[in-house]
C-alpha cells in the first residue's frame, strides 16, 4: 500500500517533548518520595539506583527519541469516499474510515496547543473515535469543514 | 398528556429489591464472615440499618423520578441528590421492550425499556420500572406517531403468541433447554458457586470435627463418589432451572421489518428488533456443543442489548443445530450468506499461535510450580495443552469475503464467527508489530459497534491489504 500523503505539524515534536517533561517532573517527585523513604527506613539501596536508572532511560526515550519517531510515522489522508490514518512506532496501524460512517468531527485545542498554534481533530463514528493529533490550527479547522462536507447521510445505517 | 408523571408505586418495592440484590453479598460477608460469635449489635443492627436505608432510598428514588411525554421527546428527571434531566428525542429511540417481572405482575403493570444507539458518550437509555399497560401503549403510540419506522410490537400481553403461529421462524424445544444447560458450561459455574458457598459456611460447621467423624465413612469410596454425584446433580438442577427460567418458550417471529423474540418462564420478556438495526450476526460454538454440531446465534444490534446479555448482542437462537441455524438466519436475514469456506492463516503464523499461550502462561505457571513443589511440577503439563489449544485456534481462525459481506472467525474454547455487511462496518484497521512485519503478517480489526471489535491476528500481509482495500 502506498504511503499516505499528508503529515502532521512538526511543531508537534516540541509540544510532545514539553508534555513528556511535565510528566517526568511529576514522576521525579514520586521517585524522590519513594527514594527518601527507602533511604530513611533502611530499605535496599539498590532499589534507589534502579529507580534512577529507569528514570534516565524514560527521560532519554520520551524526550529525545519518541516524539520525533512518533511524528515521523504519523500520516493521514482524507478523500471524498473515505479517510485513512497511519501511525505507530512499535505497532504500525493503518485505519480506514468510510466517510458515510462519520458521525461528527471535533476540533480540540488545549492551552499548550493553543500557544503553539496547534489543534487536534477527532473523528467519531458510531463505534470508534480516531484522533489526528497536533495539526496546524488553520489546517485542523479546514480539515473539520472538509470532512463534514464529505459526510453524506447514508440512510441504510445508524 | 404533557404533565410530569410518576411511576406506579410498586416500583418502590422493585427498587428496594434491586438494592437488596446489590447489597446481599457484601452484607452476607459482613454479617456471616466477619462475626465469629453471634452478637446482637452486629447481626441484627447491620441488616436493620441496611433495610431502613434501602427502603428510604427506594422511596425517594420513586418520589424523585418523573417522566413526561412530549410531542417529540421523552423527558426523564431523576436522582435523589444530584438531579439528572434527560431528554430523549423519539427519532433517536432504537427500540422499546416490555417486560413483566415479579413486582410488575403483582401490580398488573409493565416495565418499559427504551434503547437508543449506543454511540454517544453518556448513552441515553431509560427504564420506566412500572407503568400501566395503557400508559405503555400510549407512550409507544406517541413514539410511533413521531417516527414512522418505530421499533415496537403491539403485543403488550406477552402470553398470547399463539395467534401468530405462522410467523414463527424458530422455537426452542423443552428438550433443547436441557441440552443447552448440559452443554453450556453452566453446570461448572453452578458447581463453583456451590463450592464457594460451602467454603463460606466454614464458620458454622467445624470441618475438623466433621472430618474426624466422617473419616471412616469417607474411607469408603462409594460414599465419597456418591457425595460428588449428589453435588453434581444439584449443580445440574440449578443450571437447568436457570436456563429454563431464561429460555423457556423461546420463540422468534418475523414480522415484516421486525424480528420479535419472546421468552421466559416467570418473567416473560419480549424484544422487538428492527432488521435495519442489525449490524451483524455472530455464531458461537463452544467445545462441547461443537462435538454435537450445535451452535448459538446472536445478532449485533445497534440499539444495544435489549435482553441484558453481553454488550450489544441479542440472542436469536440459544441452542440450535448448525444446519438449522443457517436456515433460520436465511429466513430472518436473507442478505447474509452463511458458509464455512474460510481463508485460513498462512503456515508461518502457526508457530506464533502455538507459542503465544506458552509465553503468556510460562511465568505464572513456573512460579506456581516452584512454590508447590514437588506436585506443582505437574502444572507444567498445562503448557503443552495450552500450546495445543493455540494450534487449534490457529486452525480455526480465518476470514472470508463474499460480495458485500465480510466474515471473520476465531476463538480458542469458544469459536466465534462474525458476519457483517460492508456498509455496517464503521472502520477497518490493519496493524503490525515489529515481529509481525518481519514475518509479513498483519492483524486485521473491524469495528461494527461501540466496544465491539473483531480481530484476527497474523493474517497474511497481502490478504490483509486485500480486505482493507475491499473496504474502499
Structure description:
The complex is a heterodimer of chains A (158) and B (472). Chain A is of the alpha+beta class and 158 residues long. Chain A has 2 domains: 9-72; 77-150, PH-domain like (Roll). Chain A has 4 helices and 7 strands; from the N terminus they run E-H-H-E-E-E-E-H-E-E-H. Chain A has helices spanning 11-40, 45-72, 111-115, 137-150, and strands at residues 6-7, 75-78, 82-87, 92-98, 102-108, 118-125, 129-136. In chain A, helix 1 (11-40) packs antiparallel against helix 2 (45-72). With 472 residues, chain B is of the alpha+beta class. Among the domains of chain B are: 10-92 and 114-121 and 131-143, no CATH class; 175-247, no CATH class; 339-472, PH-domain like. Chain B has 14 helices and 20 strands. Chain B has helices at residues 10-33, 40-63, 102-107, 133-146, 174-183, 186-200, 207-219, 221-247, 287-292, 322-332, 350-371, 382-396, 434-438, 461-470, and strands at residues 66-69, 73-78, 84-89, 93-100, 109-116, 125-132, 168-171, 251-255, 258-263, 268-274, 278-286, 294-301, 313-321, 343-344, 398-402, 405-410, 414-421, 427-432, 441-449, 452-460. In chain B, the strands form 4 sheets. Chain B has a 7-stranded antiparallel beta sheet with strand order 6-5-4-10-9-8-7. In chain B, helix 5 (174-183) crosses helix 8. Chain B is globular. The two termini of chain B are 49 Å apart. Mean pLDDT of chain B is 79; it is low at 118-124 and 149-164. At the A-B interface, strand 4 of A face strand 18, strand 19 and helix 14 of B.
CATH homologous group name of one domain in chain B: Pleckstrin-homology domain (PH domain)/Phosphotyrosine-binding domain (PTB)
Q: Which CATH C-level class of the largest domain in chain A is it?
A: Mainly Beta
Radius of gyration based on Cα positions of chain B = 26 Å
Strands in their spatial order, largest beta sheet of chain A: 1-2-3-4
> What is the CATH architecture assignment of one domain in chain B?
Roll
Distance between the termini of chain A: 30 Å
Beta-strand portion of chain A reads 25-35%
Number of helices of chain B: 14
Amino acid at each position: 500500500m502506498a504511503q499516505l500523503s499528508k503529515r502532521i505539524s512538526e511543531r508537534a515534536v516540541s509540544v510532545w517533548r514539553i508534555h513528556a517533561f511535565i510528566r517526568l517532573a511529576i514522576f521525579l517527585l514520586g521517585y524522590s518520595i519513594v527514594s527518601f523513604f527507602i533511604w530513611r527506613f533502611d530499605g535496599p539501596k539498590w532499589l534507589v539506583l534502579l529507580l534512577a536508572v529507569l528514570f534516565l532511560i524514560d527521560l532519554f526515550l520520551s524526550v529525545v527519541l519518541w516524539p520525533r519517531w512518533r511524528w515521523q510515522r504519523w500520516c493521514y489522508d482524507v478523500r471524498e469516499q473515505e479517510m485513512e490514518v497511519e501511525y505507530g512506532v512499535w505497532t504500525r496501524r493503518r485505519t480506514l474510515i468510510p466517510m458515510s460512517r462519520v458521525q461528527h468531527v471535533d476540533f480540540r485545542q488545549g492551552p499548550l496547543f493553543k500557544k503553539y498554534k496547534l489543534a487536534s481533530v477527532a473523528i467519531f463514528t458510531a463505534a470508534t473515535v480516531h484522533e489526528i493529533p497536533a495539526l496546524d490550527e488553520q489546517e485542523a479547522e479546514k480539515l473539520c469543514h472538509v470532512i463534514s462536507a464529505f459526510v453524506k447521510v447514508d440512510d441504510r445505517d445508524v | 398528556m404533557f404533565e410530569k408523571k410518576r411511576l406506579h408505586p410498586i416500583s418502590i418495592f422493585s427498587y428496594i429489591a434491586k438494592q437488596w440484590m446489590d447489597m446481599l453479598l457484601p452484607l452476607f460477608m459482613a454479617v456471616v464472615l466477619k462475626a465469629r460469635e453471634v452478637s446482637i449489635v452486629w447481626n441484627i443492627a447491620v441488616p436493620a440499618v441496611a433495610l431502613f436505608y434501602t427502603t428510604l432510598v427506594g422511596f425517594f428514588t420513586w418520589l424523585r423520578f418523573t417522566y413526561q411525554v412530549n410531542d417529540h421527546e421523552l423527558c426523564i428527571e431523576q436522582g435523589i441528590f444530584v438531579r439528572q434531566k434527560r431528554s430523549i428525542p423519539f427519532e433517536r429511540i432504537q427500540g422499546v421492550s416490555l417486560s413483566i417481572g415479579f413486582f410488575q405482575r403483582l401490580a398488573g403493570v409493565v416495565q418499559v425499556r427504551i434503547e437508543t444507539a449506543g454511540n454517544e458518550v453518556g448513552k441515553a437509555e431509560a427504564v420506566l420500572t412500572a407503568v400501566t399497560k395503557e400508559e405503555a401503549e400510549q407512550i409507544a403510540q406517541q413514539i410511533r406517531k413521531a417516527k414512522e419506522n418505530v421499533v415496537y410490537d403491539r403485543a403488550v400481553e406477552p402470553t398470547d403468541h399463539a395467534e401468530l403461529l405462522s410467523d414463527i421462524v424458530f422455537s426452542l424445544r423443552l428438550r433443547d433447554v436441557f441440552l443447552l444447560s448440559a452443554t453450556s458450561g453452566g453446570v461448572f459455574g453452578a458447581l463453583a458457586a456451590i463450592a464457594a458457598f460451602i467454603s463460606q459456611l466454614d464458620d458454622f460447621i467445624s470441618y475438623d470435627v466433621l472430618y474426624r467423624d466422617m473419616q471412616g465413612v469417607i474411607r469408603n469410596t462409594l460414599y465419597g463418589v456418591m457425595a460428588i454425584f449428589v453435588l453434581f446433580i444439584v449443580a445440574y438442577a440449578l443450571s437447568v432451572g436457570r436456563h429454563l427460567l431464561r429460555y423457556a418458550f423461546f420463540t422468534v417471529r418475523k414480522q415484516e421489518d421486525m424480528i420479535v423474540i419472546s421468552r421466559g418462564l416467570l418473567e416473560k420478556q419480549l424484544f422487538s428488533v428492527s432488521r435495519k438495526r442489525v449490524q451483524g450476526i455472530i455464531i458461537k460454538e463452544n467445545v462441547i456443543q461443537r462435538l454435537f454440531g450445535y451452535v448459538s446465534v446472536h445478532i449485533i444490534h445497534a440499539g444495544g442489548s435489549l435482553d441484558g446479555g453481553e454488550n450489544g448482542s441479542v440472542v436469536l437462537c440459544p441452542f440450535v443445530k448448525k444446519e438449522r441455524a443457517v436456515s433460520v438466519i436465511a429466513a430472518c436475514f436473507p442478505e447474509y450468506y452463511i458458509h464455512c469456506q474460510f481463508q485460513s492463516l498462512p503456515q508461518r503464523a502457526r508457530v506464533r499461535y502455538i507459542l503465544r499461550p506458552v509465553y503468556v502462561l510460562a511465568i505464572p505457571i513456573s512460579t506456581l510450580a516452584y512454590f508447590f513443589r514437588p506436585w506443582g511440577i505437574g502444572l507444567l503439563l498445562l503448557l503443552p495443552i495450552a500450546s495445543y489449544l493455540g494450534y487449534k485456534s490457529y486452525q480455526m481462525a480465518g476470514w472470508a469475503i463474499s460480495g458485500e459481506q465480510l466474515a471473520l472467525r476465531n476463538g480458542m474454547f469458544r469459536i466465534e464467527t462474525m458476519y457483517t455487511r460492508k456498509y455496517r462496518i464503521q472502520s477497518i484497521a490493519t496493524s503490525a508489530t515489529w515481529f509481525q512485519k518481519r514475518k509479513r503478517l498483519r492483524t486485521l480489526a473491524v469495528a461494527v459497534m461501540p466496544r465491539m471489535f473483531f480481530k484476527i491476528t497474523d493474517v497474511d500481509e497481502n490478504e490483509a491489504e486485500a480486505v482493507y482495500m475491499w473496504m474502499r
